[in-house]
Amino acid sequence: MPPNGGTRMQTRQAFSVVNGGQDLPPTTAPPSHSGSEGGIVEFSKEDIDALLNEKLRIKNKFNFKDKSELMGDYIKRLKQCIKWFQQLEGNYVSEQEKLKSLLDVVEKKCNDMESMMKAKEDELNSIIMELRKHLEALQEKFAKEEADKLEALDSLGREKDSRLEAERLQASLSEELKRTQQDNATANQKIQSFNDMHKRSQEYTISLQQYNSRLQSELHATNDTLKRVEKEKAAVVENLSTLRGHYTSLQEQLTSSRETQAEVIKQKEALGSEVTCLRGDLQQVRDDRDRRLLQVQALSDEVEKYKDCTGKSIAELESLTSKTNNLESTCSSQTEQIRRLQEQLAFAEQKLQKSNISIMTTRSEFEEQQAMIRELKNRLTDADSKILEGEKLRKQLHNTILELKGNIRVFCRVRPLLSDDGVGNDAKVVSFPTSMEMLGRGIDLAQNGQKHSFTYDKVFMPDDSQQDVFVEISQLVQSALDGYKVCIFAYGQTGSGKTYTMMGKQGPPDQKGLIPRSLEQVFESRQILEAQGWKYEMQVSMLEIYNETIRDLLAPNRSNFDAGKQYAIKHDSNGNTHVSDLTILDVRSSKEVSYLLERAAQSRSVGKTQMNEQSSRSHFVFTLRILGINESTDQQVQGVLNLIDLAGSERLSKSGSTGDRLKETQAINKSLSSLSDVIFALAKKDEHIPFRNSKLTYLLQPCLGGDSKTLMFVNVSPDPSSVGESLCSLRFAARVNACEIGVPRRQTNLRTTDSRLSIG
Q1: Are 158 and 179 a contacting pair, CB within 8 Å?
Q2: Which residues are CB-contacts of 297 (< 8 A; sequence separation ≥ 6)?
Q3: 90, 245, 258, 404: which has the highest count of C-beta atoms within 10 A?
Q4: CA-to-CA distance for 194 and 177, rounded, in angstroms?
Q5: What are phi and psi of 160, to 5 degrees?
Q6: What pLDDT, in 10s, does the model give residues 494-533?
Q7: CA distances (Å), origin 473, targets 241, 484, 499, 626, 710
Q8: Quick check: helix, strand or coil at residue 49?
Q9: How far is CA 508 from CA 100, 379, 505, 524, 614, in A?
Q10: Could you report the per-residue pLDDT of 529-565, keeping only the tens digit for each?
Q11: Which residues of 352-390 are buried (b: 16+ CB within 10 A; e: fewer)?
């Protein structure tokens, strides 16, 4: 296939460039033009399923040229599919960010609406209190006017009596004039009361003006607050999680606001009834005023008659006339005051009506905002599910490519900093890139001011739990039940957390390592598959390689360690491995295997060094052989699960090993050096691979050079004093990641007469 201008190297070559291309050999696979600038092909779910389930149809299985071309075309389509999923994932992430920002804006508007509703309610309450006070004042005025009315009626009766007496006896006119003077004094008192009422009305008008100015100042303050809120908008976006927590409180506030609204409506009805009563009282006041005017007119007529009857009382009558005129002017001023009060009452009613309309509008807007929030949350949930589904499919496609290429998968795990680590003024040496392409797959190591970047199939951060690690390998463990050979081994320096990763700690269930969790999954899946007609037989063996010597950790007589018993490693033509005289036990439950693990742990060689309180001084190999038979389909599968905890590499200058510890360190470093030589030879595709240079590499030969699904954990310490060993481990892991060992092959339709199944 000819390359074009926008070609990219295959995925594994991209890893090698990031990991430092000068240390890695180039792959021999042809370049692919799936990443060209011609556009990205879209895939449906049916296309992806068909692509994953597609099998190569080759008429002649020895025609490697056609097989290579078909394989290259298949990998090209897989790359196109992965690139499409990466772009789709980016679109989902950007859409999720937009939805989150829109949700922040909507929640902010809801908060503003709630504050406005509260301010409106406070304003209405203050208006209602003012109207109640005004009503009480009017009631007091009405009571006083009633008293004045009664007095005026009494005075009118007395004046009628005096008029009759004046017709009979002119001499009694002086007495009548005295009574008239008394009535005049009463009228003066009424005028004084009307003046007092006028003063109170003026004071009420001033208070209303002050209230209006106070409302204007509150309006300016609200505008300033709105400007300040717009400036704080960016800070509110960061408080999304807090606003979500306040969502429940907003609902409670909505309920309370609804109750308050109901109370306001009731108060409005009561206020309307009070206004009706006030209007009736005003009408009565007007009627009283008219009757008084008639009385004044009648008094004027009587005064005219008195003028005709006697000339002596002219001066007194003139004074009464002037007082009557004053009373008329006072009545007119009171009429004007009543008119102003009516206008104020109408304005208050209009304001109350506007407040009710504003409350209804705010409530409808709040309900719309709530509906929009629910819609945005649903869209956000859908986007999250689509992202998870896309990530799951991306991993599946990535694993399919790795299986087709036959590469060894590499996971990196960084342990947390411990109290014993020498962390002082040294800078942080391990960091993790946050870009979309490198997130969860990249790691950066700083040494002497220089940053070294590496990329693997998966990188676990210090805060990732044992369960998080196991989820990533659970499908690989499941392959053993499907008839594949599976090998998982942990590599790294002393104290980097290999044994914790593989075995875990005794005690809490969340501290279990990969080996106990893998066994639990295998036996759980066994029960599920038994319902489909499968029957499984499982066998366990455990050994350690100590100072280039194999030790059987399940041997009934532990004195064999001292007897120097020799165990021979043999490989047959089918790629299976046998260890002579090795103890192999049948197991039926995970509890039995857990007991055997504790028994093996007690027999394993451990020692104390300056770098680790309990350092593993040997390579531990756990093997689970699985034989499955389906009687309904006459199908048989034979799988092997190898879980290996390698001893840690260490430097004598740091470990301070002497005596037996020194011999152990030399043997460990020699076997790990032989493993490195094998990896170099595989990467260079040498004809001769030095598997026989050590017991470890010879035992791992089927995993490193056969048809096994192999995964390596490289464990790294974040201790700045161990940065040199960490860099060596990461570089070795990059070389392992670039090795191609062959396509995994499923073992079916095989039945062995030997009860000891293969180790690899």
Answers
A1: yes
A2: none
A3: 404
A4: 25
A5: -65, -45
A6: 888 888 999 888 878 888 899 999 999 999 988 888 888 8
A7: 32, 14, 17, 18, 11
A8: helix
A9: 38, 39, 8, 20, 20
A10: 888 888 999 999 999 888 888 888 888 876 545 456 7
A11: beebbeebeebbebbeebbebbeebeebbeebeebbeeb
Report the alpha-carbon distance of residue 487 to residue 471 in Å, rounded: 16
Q: Which two tokens stand for residue 512?
A: 């279990």
Neighbouring CB atoms inside 10 A of 20's CB total 14
Per the rule left: phi > 0, alpha: psi between -120 and 50, beta: everything else, 626 is beta
Q: How far apart are the first and last CA of the chain?
A: 37
Widest CA span of the chain, in angstroms?
162
Q: Quick one: tokens of 301?
A: 């007529």
The closest of 121, 108, 106 to 358, measured between CA atoms, is 121
In whole angstroms, give the CA distance from residue 644 to residue 327: 116
CA 689 to chain centre: 51
Tell me the residue length of the chain.
Answer: 760
List C-alpha distances in Å: 124 to 127, 172, 222, 425. 5, 63, 17, 64
Question: Tokens at residue 83, please?
Answer: 């690139």
List Cβ neighbours of 661 (8 Å cut-off, separation of 6 or more): 607, 609, 617, 655
Please give the structure tokens belonging to residue 548.
């280039």
Q: What is the pTM of this model?
A: 0.51
